[in-house]
Amino acid sequence: MLAWDVLVTVCLGYVVFLFAIAFWADRRARQGRFGWLRSPYVYTLSLSVYCTAWTFFGAVGTAARSGYEFLPIYLGPTIVFTGWYFLLRKLVRIARTQRITSIADLISSRYGKSPVLGVAVTLLAVLGSTPYIALQLKSITLSFSVFANGGEDAAPASELTALYIAIGLAIFTILFGTRNVNANERHHGVVAAIAMEAIVKLAALLAVGIFVTWVLFAGPQDVFAASPAHLAAIDTVVTPRWVTLTFLSASAIVCLPRMFQVLVVEQTDERNLTTAVWAFPLYLALISLFVLPIAIAGLDRLPGEDPDLFVLTLPLSAGANGVALFAFLGGFSAATSMVIVAAIALSTMVSNHIVMPLWLGWARSKGRAGDLRAVLLASRRLSILAILTLGYLYFLVAAPEALAAIGLISFAAMAQVFPALVGALFWRGATGTGALAGIAAGFLIWGYTLALPSFEGDFLLGAATIEHGAFGIAALRPHALFGLEGFDPLTHTLFWSMLANVSLFVGVSLASRPQPLEQFQAAQFVDVFRQSEAAPALVARSATSEDLLALATRILGREEGEELFARAARAQGKRGGLPDPTDSFIEHLERELAGAVGSASAHELVSQIAGRGTVSVDGLMKIADETLQLIETSRRLAAKSAELEETARQLRHANDQLKRIDALKDAFLSQVSHELRTPMTSIRAFAEILEETPDVSSEEARHFLGIIREESQRLTRLLDEILDLSFLESGRVTFNIAPVRLSEVIDRALFSTQGLARSQGVTIETIREVPEIEIETDFDRVAQVVINLISNAVKYGGSVDPRITIRMGRDADGAFIEVADHGPGIPPDKREEVFEKFTRLSEANLAGSAGLGLPIAREIMRNLGGGLRVMPNRPGAVFRMDLPDRPPAAAPAPQEKAAKDVPPSPVNEEVTPAHGLQSST
Amino acid sequence: MQTGSRNRPGEDGAPPASATFEHRRRRDAAAVLPFAALVLFVSPLLDLMAGADTLFGIPVGVLYIFGSWFALIAATGLLARRLGDDQER
Question: What is the value of ipTM here, to two decimals?
Answer without folding.
Answer: 0.83
